[in-house]
Amino acid sequence: MCLIHFNIQGHPNYNLIVAANRDEFYKRPTEKAHFWPDAPHLLAGRDLVQKGTWLGITKEGRFAALTNIRDLSLEGKDKKSRGAIVRGFLTSTDSPVDYLTKISQEKDTYAGFNILVGNSQELFHYNNIEDKIVQVTPGTHSLSNASLNTPWPKVIKGKKMLGDYFRQSDKIKTEHLFQILENNEQAQDSHLPNTGIGLEMERQLSASFIKTPEYGTRSATVLLIDRNNQVIFKERTYKKGILVGEEEFSFSIPTSTA
Predict the structure, then answer these.
(1) What pLDDT score was predicted for residue 75?
(2) CA 4 to CA 76: how far, in whole Å?
(3) Structure pTM?
(4) What are 239-255's pLDDT values in tens digits?
(5) 156 close to 5: Cβ distance less than 8 angstroms
């Protein structure tokens, strides 16, 4: 997962709004969003190499999502799968802070990552570079491949587009959020970060929706949880930039667990 725009407890009609893109190599085998047979309460896509995931929610309302940190010095073949961090929270009963405390104790066994965990009432952010557990403040935020709200072009653009839309509409339409995620406009060179991957790749990765010959946006997810704890989860899947499928799920979070 490389881009997560979200609003927590900042909209009059929704507890949580999430619009997120997963960028990955096209050749990496993946399952589209589904309730997992080995964890029937868990709704998420699945990486078929390491069996983890990048974003998911449970029927009880536990939510988690992850992005990689773009720092080549943190990579290594001996590192553990970052997708296991999301899976671990969604299959555990630990509180968000307790879970992140455990993750922080083994932070160096993973390549760079950001993780959001919690539910529609509260979210916590952690990454293994800053090594701080922080409760996310109410409002609109964005997370790409640096830290939370680091002002990369796609972060600035996405937050503005979401903010403008929220001010215009009390009823959120998933189609509009997908349009934001599918924006393929690249940033100006003067606005690009320098993460050590070269100028041309920085340009290509600066768009919200990425399409390169070998790597790009594989899926886009929109998650809405309204004030009555009704969940709408939609995922679009792409093949080399072309939309090839859409899944939709809806359910209610029990009041006792919301």
Answers:
(1) 73
(2) 25
(3) 0.96
(4) 999 999 999 999 999 98
(5) no
Tell me if the domain spanning 3-252 has CATH number 6.10.140.1670: no
CA 229 to each of CA 13, 154, 167, 223: distance values in angstroms, whole numbers, following the listed order? 10, 30, 22, 12
Write down the pLDDT at residue 167: 85
Q: Where are the domains of the chain?
A: 3-252
Instruction: Find where tokens 């299959």 sit.
Output: 91
Residue 255 structure tokens: 């009041």
- CB neighbour list of residue 160: distance below 8 Å, 6 or more residues apart: none
